[in-house]
């Protein structure tokens, strides 16, 4: 097996690649979404999340980033969450978030296992994260993991009128905003 890359070496290497990669245990791996095209639903939910969080973040010192900016989940591992809320001074030429408060992964059928298990476990270990949000695309549904002391509590939201309170970042999300302009097959849309 080849030597492990440092995050710094990875970023230098990534800048020469056409597709996004993650660094997993010191080894570059194609980003999970590079294996298949991101669906319109995935993209739409990601944009809706960004739009819903943008207003509350203005003037707070928090900023939003997309999967273009990495998050270090361990010394040899860098992930690319779909949406991150960071609360730290901006370092202009940096390629990673250093003080994330929230990460959101928009679940696609091809990424469910890695997003809901491996990445979730990695994110839970990050010391500055207050929230991890997993968002479905096949039906309206989210799971919010909220740091409570030394552990995590989870809460599911399925009704479109549900409100997700995020006081650690001064925001709230409604599922109606997350799933704005989307329709689901009968029986899948919670009322």
Automatic annotation (TrEMBL):
Keyword annotations? Endonuclease, Hydrolase, Nuclease
| GO MF entry, a single one | endonuclease activity
Q: Check the record and name the InterPro entries matching this protein.
A: Nuclease_put_TT1808, Restrct_endonuc-II-like, Uma2
**What top-level branch of life does the organism fall under?**
Bacteria
* The Putative restriction endonuclease domain, residue ranges: 8-174
Q: Where is the signal peptide?
A: none
- CDD domains for the chain: DUF820-like
- PANTHER family under this entry? GLR1098 PROTEIN (PTHR36558), RESTRICTION ENDONUCLEASE DOMAIN-CONTAINING PROTEIN-RELATED (PTHR36558:SF1)
Protein known as: Uma2 family endonuclease
Query: Which organism's genome codes for this protein?
Result: Methylorubrum rhodinum
Q: What is the lineage of its organism?
A: Bacteria, Pseudomonadati, Pseudomonadota, Alphaproteobacteria, Hyphomicrobiales
């Amino acid at each position: 097996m080849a030597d492990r890359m440092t995050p710094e070496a990875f970023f230098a290497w990534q800048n020469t690649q056409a597709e996004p990669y993650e660094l997993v245990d010191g080894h570059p791996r194609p980003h999970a979404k590079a294996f298949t095209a991101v669906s319109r639903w995935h993209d739409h939910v990601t944009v809706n999340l960004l739009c819903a969080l943008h207003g509350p973040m203005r003037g707070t010192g928090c900023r939003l980033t997309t999967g273009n900016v990495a998050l270090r989940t361990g010394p040899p591992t860098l992930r690319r969450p779909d949406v991150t809320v960071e609360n730290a001074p901006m370092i202009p030429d940096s390629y990673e978030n250093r003080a994330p408060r929230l990460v959101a992964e928009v679940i696609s059928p091809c990424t469910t296992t890695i997003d809901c298990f491996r990445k979730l476990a990695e994110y839970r270990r990050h010391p500055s994260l207050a929230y991890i949000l997993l968002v479905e695309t096949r039906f309206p549904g989210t799971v919010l993991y909220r740091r409570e002391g030394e552990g995590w509590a989870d809460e599911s939201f399925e009704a479109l009128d549900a409100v997700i309170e995020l006081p650690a970042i001064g925001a709230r999300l409604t599922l109606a905003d997350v799933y704005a302009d989307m329709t689901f097959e009968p029986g899948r849309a919670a009322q």
